[in-house]
Amino acid sequence: MTAKKLVLPRLGFWWVAAGILLIALGVIAAVRFTKGLGAVTNLSDPFPWGLWIGFDVLCGVGLAAGGFAIAAAVYVFHLEDFKPILRPTILTAFLGYALVIVALIFDLGKPWNIWHPIVMWNPHSVMFEVGWCVMLYTTVLFLEFLPAVLERFRLAKPLRILAKASPFLVILGVILSTLHQSSLGSLFLILPHKVHPLWYSPLLPVLFFVSAVAAGLAMTVVESWFSRRAFGRPIETALLARLSRTSVVVLALYLALRLRDLIARQALPTLFPLSLASWLFLAELILGVVVPMVALATAWVRSSPRRLAIFQGMVVLGFILNRLNVSITAVESATGYRYLPAIPEFLVTMGLVALGMLGFCAACKYFNVFPETQWREEEKWRTAPAASLAIDG
276 and 350 in one domain? Predict the structure, then answer.
């Protein structure tokens, strides 16, 4: 029995748009790697971190946090009900981290030196710790998704080995994710006078971690909704409702920590006089946290996949706005420097998103990503007798 191939939807406009973005990505990459960052970005010495760090890295890593959260629920807490959404979540996380690495190659001044942290250790550097954790966790995600590839090629023995190693991989993934999700916030602790008080805080590592968990859960719900729309797959409404109840708790914790920190640091008065930074702060907190938290707490919202996707989508957008506010808005407001991403910066970001979507579609076409055959196939090959180890041609 071979894996059932998923027929990709006829998206028409979206396929054409993705193709154009990938061509633009290739052209800009050629210019960037031959003529340098100045030829394609508006980055400068006073403002060295722009859209590629704020969105491609900070958002990409955070939105992939659902991978370790769902894996921990299944393998550590033995919540077997979440198995049907585990593999799509792991795939989303793996693609997210892979694209973060690609974005870093674009952003680094000397991308050919990206391997240096492997042999040139600096344990006092937050960037060193983030680099190692991202590298190791990407490897863990690859190994967690590898069973889908082994099932496709009927490799029973390595599949059984990976099955036994799964709990260890998940625990390692949780540790690595906790370390680097929080450490991304630590990167900004060295900038107390270059980040607006509404966003600068000694609690940034904690706030980054808690908000990443909320965004990861929200992204799992949104990804499930779009998978249903694109591929016509059944949606696990009961599971997504349970995830959303958890989201309410995580969002409430984040809101309490954020408000307590703002009050303790006497930072709330910096909202006035109202400015663009003030409105962006209020939008991030009210539309991205308070409104979806209240909505997801109601049974009416949790009973509808569409409503779940809408309000969890607000959480995702609020998370993206937070990371862009920390990395761009807060620095602009505190330093007075102005930064507007160049068109090639936007095109690279959009191209990476398109590449991730095409990668997800390709994986869904050729591997058992969705639950209809996923767990039946895995159990079959885990328990297959030695005589059945031959590959089915």
Answer: no
* Domain that includes residue 108, residue range: 23-187+341-375
Residue 237's pLDDT is: 86
Dist CA 131 CA 34 (whole Å): 25
Rounded to whole angstroms, the Cα distance separating 199 from 314 reads 20
Task: Kindly state whether residue 11 falls inside one of the protein's structural domains.
Answer: no
Looking at the chain, how many residues does it have?
Answer: 393
Residue among 206, 198, 202 at smallest CA distance from 188: 202
Distance, CA of 169 to CA of 333 (rounded, Å)? 42
Greatest Cα pair distance in the chain? 75
Do 101 and 115 belong together in one domain? yes
- What separation in angstroms does the CA of 34 have from each of 100, 103, 276? 21, 17, 37
Give 57's DSSP letter: I
DSSP state of 158: H
Please report, rounded to a whole number, the percentage of residues in the chain having pLDDT higher than 90: 67
The b/e string for 270-282 (b: 16+ C-beta within 10 A; e otherwise) is bbeeeeebbebbe
Burial degree of 286 (CB within 10 A; 0-12, 13-18, 19+): exposed
In Å, how far are 128, 135, 136, 256, 328 from 120, measured between CA atoms?
A: 9, 15, 16, 40, 30
- Total Cβ atoms within 10 A of residue 377: 21
Three-state SS for 134?
helix
What's the rounded Cα separation, in Å, for the pair 302 and 295?
9
Question: Radius of gyration of the chain from Cα atoms?
Answer: 22
> pTM for the whole thing?
0.89
Tens of pLDDT, residue by residue over 324-360, are 999 999 999 998 899 999 999 999 999 999 999 999 9
Q: How many domains does the chain have?
A: 2
- Look at the block and give the residue holding tokens 């998704």: 145
Distance CA 126, CA 186 (A): 7
Half-sphere exposure of 95 (CA within 13 A, CB side): 20
Residues 74, 28 contacting (CB under 8 angstroms) = no
CA 64 to chain centre: 2
Number of DSSP helices (H) and strands (E) in the chain, helices first? 17, 0
